[in-house]
Batch of 2 targets.
Target 1
Amino acid sequence: MKRLVAFVVVATLALSACSSSVEDATEAYCDDLETLAGAIASVNSLSATSSIEDFQDTADDISDAFDDVRSSAADVEGAVTDEIDSARSDFRDAVDDIDDSDSLSAGIADVQSAAVAYVDAVNATLAKVDCSSSS
């Protein structure tokens, strides 16, 4: 009987730890998605007169936030990032067309349009995840 009680206690603790771990992973994923959406939205602060350095800093912040999402998504069962991956690819294509100040002033509208679609994809992914118990 003592073994049965000990087993139940250990099993209950293990399930509790597992549940906490799942909640922690989901919370990290939700937080990373929200950070990514914010980083992408910062593209709207850029203008045709922004420097290439400002643009590159923003692009680097977005890239870092995307890497965090990919990392945290790996810890969440069923996390899907296909929509984000596709929007990121379109965004990167728009960014890759900019290589100097002249192309920044000409291409900022395309980058901002791609950023809107990227944020929409992140928000659509957030809507699919139960982030209500996180944050």
Target 2
Amino acid sequence: MNKHIIFDNYDPDDYREGAIESLLENCNYSAAADIPESEIYDEINFMMGIYWDDERRMMENYFDGKMLLVCGNVGRWNGNFAAGKIIDYSELWKCWADCDYISIYDEGGHFYIKASHHDGTNHFEVKILTEKGAEIYERWENYCSRWEDLNEREVHERLWKNAKYSHIPHYAREVFGCKTR
């Protein structure tokens, strides 16, 4: 399966070569060895910030107006715990709130988020609710559904498993034209 990295800051050294090239082109350095490490890391942080802003805008443009079903687990100091939520894009950041490292990627049309902090790592997959799925969820929230006896996790599972109610985003294909095989 094709994996398309949307954003990843787990290894800042992945940006090192680009940072050095940028500093050589835009500053008065004649060789990479002349550039102080602190300046290289400042440039890496600057580049990652620009990259993150660009990717965040593209995700917002794609997901805006869609209801998202986010399922996975949250890593905490006392173990990993199942997690799930139905949100709009404006709340997606909560998946990586208080995290130092984030990896967002599309693999075969599936949209994944991995986010680490000092207590553990959160792992999530994101699906888009269909109009029918959003309608069923709204009725369930208002106790007007044949699913009203189900708890939230059970509702998420039913929405997740049925293509009439949710689907994978195919983000890389739709935004970047990547093939998802």
